[in-house]
Amino acid sequence: MAPSPPPEPSFDALKPLKVQGLPPAGYYIPNFITEEEEELLLRKVAESPQPKWKTVGSGRRLQYWGGTLTKSNILVPEPMPDWLSAHPDIVARIDTFLDVAAGLPENSDAHALGVNQVLVNEYQPGQGISPHEDGPAFRPLVATLSLGAYTVLDLHHYISPSAPSPPMIPTEGSVGRAIAAVPLGHVLLMPRSLFILSGSAYSAHLHGIAERSADWVVRDAAVQSSTVDADGAPPVVVANAPLLGDAEVQAAIASDGGWRAERGTRVSLTFRHAERVLKGGAFAMVGGRMQRT
Ligand SMILES: O=C(O)CCC(=O)C(=O)O
Protein backbone atom coordinates (compact mmCIF):
# COMPACT_ATOMS: atom_id res chain seq x y z
CA MET A 1 0.00 0.00 0.00
CA ALA A 2 1.29 3.47 -0.81
CA PRO A 3 2.55 5.28 2.30
CA SER A 4 0.30 8.16 3.26
CA PRO A 5 1.81 11.64 3.10
CA PRO A 6 1.89 14.02 6.05
CA PRO A 7 -1.50 15.81 6.09
CA GLU A 8 -0.33 19.46 5.96
CA PRO A 9 3.41 19.84 5.83
CA SER A 10 4.63 22.99 7.47
CA PHE A 11 7.51 24.47 5.59
CA ASP A 12 9.54 25.99 8.43
CA ALA A 13 12.70 25.84 6.31
CA LEU A 14 11.02 28.07 3.75
CA LYS A 15 10.08 30.82 6.22
CA PRO A 16 12.36 33.41 4.57
CA LEU A 17 10.64 32.71 1.23
CA LYS A 18 7.10 32.96 2.59
CA VAL A 19 5.08 35.67 0.90
CA GLN A 20 3.88 37.99 3.65
CA GLY A 21 0.40 39.47 3.65
CA LEU A 22 -1.27 36.56 1.85
CA PRO A 23 -3.45 33.88 3.41
CA PRO A 24 -1.20 31.00 4.50
CA ALA A 25 0.68 30.12 2.57
CA GLY A 26 2.50 31.08 -0.58
CA TYR A 27 6.26 30.76 -1.06
CA TYR A 28 8.29 32.41 -3.82
CA ILE A 29 11.62 31.02 -4.97
CA PRO A 30 13.43 33.18 -7.57
CA ASN A 31 15.61 31.52 -10.21
CA PHE A 32 14.64 27.97 -9.33
CA ILE A 33 16.00 26.85 -12.71
CA THR A 34 18.77 28.16 -14.97
CA GLU A 35 18.28 30.05 -18.24
CA GLU A 36 19.49 26.96 -20.15
CA GLU A 37 16.91 24.78 -18.42
CA GLU A 38 14.22 27.37 -19.12
CA GLU A 39 15.15 27.35 -22.82
CA LEU A 40 15.08 23.57 -22.95
CA LEU A 41 11.70 23.32 -21.21
CA LEU A 42 10.22 25.97 -23.52
CA ARG A 43 11.53 24.09 -26.54
CA LYS A 44 10.12 20.77 -25.33
CA VAL A 45 6.70 22.32 -24.67
CA ALA A 46 6.71 23.95 -28.12
CA GLU A 47 7.80 20.71 -29.83
CA SER A 48 5.03 18.65 -28.20
CA PRO A 49 2.84 16.91 -30.74
CA GLN A 50 -0.25 18.86 -31.84
CA PRO A 51 -2.78 16.49 -30.15
CA LYS A 52 -1.21 17.28 -26.75
CA TRP A 53 -2.53 20.86 -27.01
CA LYS A 54 -6.02 21.90 -25.93
CA THR A 55 -7.37 25.40 -26.40
CA VAL A 56 -9.63 26.90 -23.73
CA GLY A 57 -11.27 30.19 -22.78
CA SER A 58 -9.93 33.16 -24.67
CA GLY A 59 -7.45 31.06 -26.65
CA ARG A 60 -5.11 29.98 -23.84
CA ARG A 61 -3.48 26.66 -24.74
CA LEU A 62 -2.67 23.87 -22.33
CA GLN A 63 -1.13 20.43 -22.10
CA TYR A 64 -1.33 17.69 -19.47
CA TRP A 65 1.59 15.43 -18.68
CA GLY A 66 1.48 12.45 -16.32
CA GLY A 67 -2.14 11.73 -17.22
CA THR A 68 -5.57 13.32 -17.12
CA LEU A 69 -8.47 13.09 -14.69
CA THR A 70 -11.64 11.13 -15.38
CA LYS A 71 -15.01 12.81 -14.72
CA SER A 72 -14.87 11.31 -11.21
CA ASN A 73 -11.47 12.90 -10.60
CA ILE A 74 -9.33 9.80 -10.89
CA LEU A 75 -5.98 10.24 -12.59
CA VAL A 76 -5.43 7.87 -15.50
CA PRO A 77 -1.65 7.87 -15.25
CA GLU A 78 0.78 8.12 -18.12
CA PRO A 79 4.57 8.11 -17.88
CA MET A 80 6.16 11.53 -17.42
CA PRO A 81 8.26 12.51 -20.43
CA ASP A 82 12.04 12.48 -20.06
CA TRP A 83 12.23 16.27 -20.26
CA LEU A 84 10.28 16.53 -16.99
CA SER A 85 11.57 13.43 -15.21
CA ALA A 86 15.19 13.02 -16.32
CA HIS A 87 16.80 15.80 -18.39
CA PRO A 88 16.23 18.02 -16.53
CA ASP A 89 14.97 16.02 -13.53
CA ILE A 90 12.62 18.82 -12.66
CA VAL A 91 9.88 16.70 -11.08
CA ALA A 92 12.35 15.04 -8.68
CA ARG A 93 13.96 18.39 -7.94
CA ILE A 94 10.66 19.95 -6.92
CA ASP A 95 9.70 16.90 -4.83
CA THR A 96 13.08 16.83 -3.08
CA PHE A 97 13.01 20.57 -2.48
CA LEU A 98 9.59 20.33 -0.82
CA ASP A 99 10.48 17.17 1.13
CA VAL A 100 13.56 18.85 2.59
CA ALA A 101 11.56 22.01 3.32
CA ALA A 102 8.90 19.91 5.07
CA GLY A 103 11.58 18.16 7.13
CA LEU A 104 10.85 14.67 5.78
CA PRO A 105 13.58 12.13 6.44
CA GLU A 106 15.90 11.49 3.52
CA ASN A 107 14.94 8.42 1.45
CA SER A 108 11.43 8.48 2.88
CA ASP A 109 8.83 6.94 0.56
CA ALA A 110 6.39 9.68 1.46
CA HIS A 111 6.55 12.98 -0.37
CA ALA A 112 5.21 16.34 0.71
CA LEU A 113 3.86 16.79 -2.82
CA GLY A 114 4.59 13.65 -4.87
CA VAL A 115 4.10 15.16 -8.33
CA ASN A 116 2.02 12.90 -10.56
CA GLN A 117 0.64 15.46 -12.99
CA VAL A 118 2.06 18.52 -14.71
CA LEU A 119 -0.26 21.08 -16.27
CA VAL A 120 1.26 23.36 -18.90
CA ASN A 121 -0.47 26.68 -19.65
CA GLU A 122 0.61 29.01 -22.45
CA TYR A 123 -0.58 32.62 -22.24
CA GLN A 124 -0.24 35.20 -25.00
CA PRO A 125 -0.26 38.85 -23.86
CA GLY A 126 -3.86 39.74 -23.00
CA GLN A 127 -4.76 36.19 -22.00
CA GLY A 128 -5.33 35.11 -18.41
CA ILE A 129 -7.25 32.62 -16.33
CA SER A 130 -10.36 33.49 -14.34
CA PRO A 131 -10.29 33.10 -10.57
CA HIS A 132 -10.63 29.42 -9.73
CA GLU A 133 -9.68 26.73 -7.25
CA ASP A 134 -7.73 23.70 -8.42
CA GLY A 135 -10.09 21.72 -6.21
CA PRO A 136 -10.09 18.70 -3.90
CA ALA A 137 -8.95 16.25 -6.58
CA PHE A 138 -5.43 17.48 -5.85
CA ARG A 139 -3.31 17.64 -2.71
CA PRO A 140 -3.52 21.22 -1.35
CA LEU A 141 0.03 21.97 -2.37
CA VAL A 142 1.04 22.97 -5.90
CA ALA A 143 4.23 24.40 -7.36
CA THR A 144 4.22 26.57 -10.48
CA LEU A 145 7.28 27.25 -12.58
CA SER A 146 7.12 30.33 -14.84
CA LEU A 147 8.92 30.29 -18.19
CA GLY A 148 9.53 32.87 -20.90
CA ALA A 149 7.85 35.91 -19.37
CA TYR A 150 6.50 37.29 -16.10
CA THR A 151 2.90 37.55 -14.99
CA VAL A 152 0.93 38.87 -12.04
CA LEU A 153 -1.10 36.22 -10.21
CA ASP A 154 -4.09 37.43 -8.19
CA LEU A 155 -5.48 35.80 -5.05
CA HIS A 156 -9.23 36.20 -4.56
CA HIS A 157 -11.63 35.36 -1.77
CA TYR A 158 -15.26 34.40 -1.56
CA ILE A 159 -17.79 36.82 -0.14
CA SER A 160 -21.31 36.51 1.11
CA PRO A 161 -23.75 37.54 -1.62
CA SER A 162 -25.83 39.24 1.10
CA ALA A 163 -23.01 41.70 1.90
CA PRO A 164 -24.09 45.28 1.10
CA SER A 165 -23.46 46.04 -2.62
CA PRO A 166 -20.49 43.72 -2.86
CA PRO A 167 -18.35 44.23 -5.94
CA MET A 168 -18.43 40.71 -7.31
CA ILE A 169 -17.02 38.67 -10.13
CA PRO A 170 -19.82 36.66 -11.72
CA THR A 171 -19.09 33.03 -10.94
CA GLU A 172 -18.63 30.55 -13.71
CA GLY A 173 -19.42 26.88 -13.74
CA SER A 174 -19.47 24.68 -10.73
CA VAL A 175 -18.33 26.87 -7.84
CA GLY A 176 -21.44 29.05 -7.70
CA ARG A 177 -20.21 31.27 -4.84
CA ALA A 178 -19.71 35.03 -4.99
CA ILE A 179 -16.12 36.14 -5.48
CA ALA A 180 -14.84 39.55 -4.41
CA ALA A 181 -13.90 41.57 -7.49
CA VAL A 182 -10.96 43.18 -5.73
CA PRO A 183 -8.21 40.60 -5.23
CA LEU A 184 -6.85 39.99 -1.74
CA GLY A 185 -3.31 40.21 -3.02
CA HIS A 186 -1.02 39.95 -6.04
CA VAL A 187 2.20 38.05 -6.65
CA LEU A 188 4.70 38.89 -9.39
CA LEU A 189 5.90 35.66 -11.00
CA MET A 190 9.17 36.23 -12.83
CA PRO A 191 10.60 33.81 -15.41
CA ARG A 192 12.36 30.79 -13.83
CA SER A 193 10.69 31.33 -10.45
CA LEU A 194 8.80 28.68 -8.53
CA PHE A 195 5.64 29.71 -6.68
CA ILE A 196 4.26 27.33 -4.10
CA LEU A 197 0.65 27.57 -3.04
CA SER A 198 -0.46 25.59 -0.02
CA GLY A 199 -2.83 25.40 2.94
CA SER A 200 -5.81 27.74 2.99
CA ALA A 201 -4.37 29.87 0.17
CA TYR A 202 -4.98 26.74 -1.93
CA SER A 203 -8.10 25.29 -0.36
CA ALA A 204 -10.16 28.31 0.75
CA HIS A 205 -9.15 30.93 -1.82
CA LEU A 206 -9.05 31.32 -5.57
CA HIS A 207 -6.24 32.30 -7.87
CA GLY A 208 -6.36 33.83 -11.31
CA ILE A 209 -4.55 36.01 -13.84
CA ALA A 210 -6.24 39.14 -15.20
CA GLU A 211 -6.51 39.40 -18.98
CA ARG A 212 -4.04 42.25 -19.50
CA SER A 213 -1.17 42.87 -21.84
CA ALA A 214 0.74 45.19 -19.50
CA ASP A 215 1.26 45.69 -15.78
CA TRP A 216 2.13 48.52 -13.48
CA VAL A 217 3.55 47.48 -10.12
CA VAL A 218 3.84 50.14 -7.41
CA ARG A 219 5.38 50.09 -3.96
CA ASP A 220 2.31 50.88 -1.90
CA ALA A 221 -1.39 51.39 -1.98
CA ALA A 222 -1.01 55.17 -1.64
CA VAL A 223 -1.07 55.37 -5.45
CA GLN A 224 -4.68 56.16 -6.31
CA SER A 225 -6.47 52.89 -6.90
CA SER A 226 -8.59 54.53 -9.58
CA THR A 227 -5.50 55.41 -11.62
CA VAL A 228 -4.94 53.47 -14.83
CA ASP A 229 -1.83 53.82 -17.01
CA ALA A 230 -1.77 54.32 -20.79
CA ASP A 231 -1.92 50.55 -21.37
CA GLY A 232 -5.00 50.24 -19.17
CA ALA A 233 -3.09 48.59 -16.34
CA PRO A 234 -4.23 49.53 -12.84
CA PRO A 235 -1.42 49.94 -10.31
CA VAL A 236 -0.94 46.85 -8.16
CA VAL A 237 1.13 46.20 -5.06
CA VAL A 238 2.77 42.77 -5.16
CA ALA A 239 3.18 40.92 -1.89
CA ASN A 240 6.45 39.24 -2.92
CA ALA A 241 8.40 42.41 -3.91
CA PRO A 242 11.13 41.80 -1.28
CA LEU A 243 11.63 38.23 -2.52
CA LEU A 244 12.07 38.87 -6.24
CA GLY A 245 15.84 38.43 -6.28
CA ASP A 246 16.05 41.02 -9.09
CA ALA A 247 17.60 44.28 -7.91
CA GLU A 248 16.59 46.22 -11.04
CA VAL A 249 12.92 45.31 -10.87
CA GLN A 250 12.87 45.82 -7.10
CA ALA A 251 14.40 49.30 -7.49
CA ALA A 252 11.83 50.18 -10.17
CA ILE A 253 8.97 49.01 -7.95
CA ALA A 254 10.36 51.11 -5.06
CA SER A 255 10.66 54.20 -7.28
CA ASP A 256 7.97 56.89 -7.52
CA GLY A 257 6.86 55.76 -10.99
CA GLY A 258 6.74 52.07 -10.16
CA TRP A 259 7.64 49.19 -12.53
CA ARG A 260 5.85 49.05 -15.88
CA ALA A 261 6.16 46.11 -18.18
CA GLU A 262 4.49 44.51 -21.16
CA ARG A 263 3.61 40.87 -20.98
CA GLY A 264 5.21 38.41 -23.36
CA THR A 265 4.32 34.80 -24.11
CA ARG A 266 4.43 33.00 -20.78
CA VAL A 267 4.41 29.26 -20.24
CA SER A 268 3.66 27.93 -16.78
CA LEU A 269 4.20 24.41 -15.51
CA THR A 270 2.04 23.51 -12.52
CA PHE A 271 3.22 20.46 -10.60
CA ARG A 272 0.54 18.73 -8.56
CA HIS A 273 -0.57 15.47 -7.00
CA ALA A 274 -3.90 13.91 -7.91
CA GLU A 275 -5.10 12.05 -4.81
CA ARG A 276 -6.84 9.20 -6.61
CA VAL A 277 -4.98 7.28 -9.27
CA LEU A 278 -6.31 4.50 -11.45
CA LYS A 279 -4.67 1.27 -10.29
CA GLY A 280 -2.89 -1.01 -12.71
CA GLY A 281 -0.16 1.20 -14.05
CA ALA A 282 0.23 3.63 -16.83
CA PHE A 283 -1.28 3.32 -20.28
CA ALA A 284 0.61 3.39 -23.53
CA MET A 285 -0.18 2.88 -27.18
CA VAL A 286 1.11 -0.57 -28.13
CA GLY A 287 0.59 -1.66 -31.72
CA GLY A 288 -2.06 1.00 -32.22
CA ARG A 289 -4.04 -0.03 -29.11
CA MET A 290 -4.12 1.44 -25.62
CA GLN A 291 -2.61 -1.00 -23.13
CA ARG A 292 -1.45 -0.91 -19.53
CA THR A 293 2.33 -0.93 -19.32
O1 LIG B 1 -0.23 29.98 -14.92
C1 LIG B 1 -0.28 30.03 -13.70
O2 LIG B 1 0.60 30.53 -13.00
C2 LIG B 1 -1.51 29.50 -12.98
C3 LIG B 1 -2.12 28.30 -13.63
C4 LIG B 1 -3.37 27.86 -12.92
O3 LIG B 1 -3.84 28.47 -12.02
C5 LIG B 1 -4.06 26.65 -13.32
O4 LIG B 1 -3.85 26.16 -14.43
O5 LIG B 1 -4.89 26.15 -12.54
TrEMBL record:
Predominant subcellular localization, coarse grouping: nucleus
Location of the Fe2OG dioxygenase domain: 114-275
GO molecular function annotations of the record: dioxygenase activity; metal ion binding
Cellular component aspect of the GO annotation: nucleus
Pfam families cross-referenced by the UniProt entry: 2OG-FeII_Oxy_2 (PF13532)
InterPro entries associated with the record: AlkB-like (IPR027450), AlkB-like_sf (IPR037151), ALKBH6 (IPR032862), Oxoglu/Fe-dep_dioxygenase_dom (IPR005123)
Annotated SUPFAM superfamilies: Clavaminate synthase-like
Family per record: Belongs to the alkB family.
Protein name: Alpha-ketoglutarate-dependent dioxygenase alkB 6
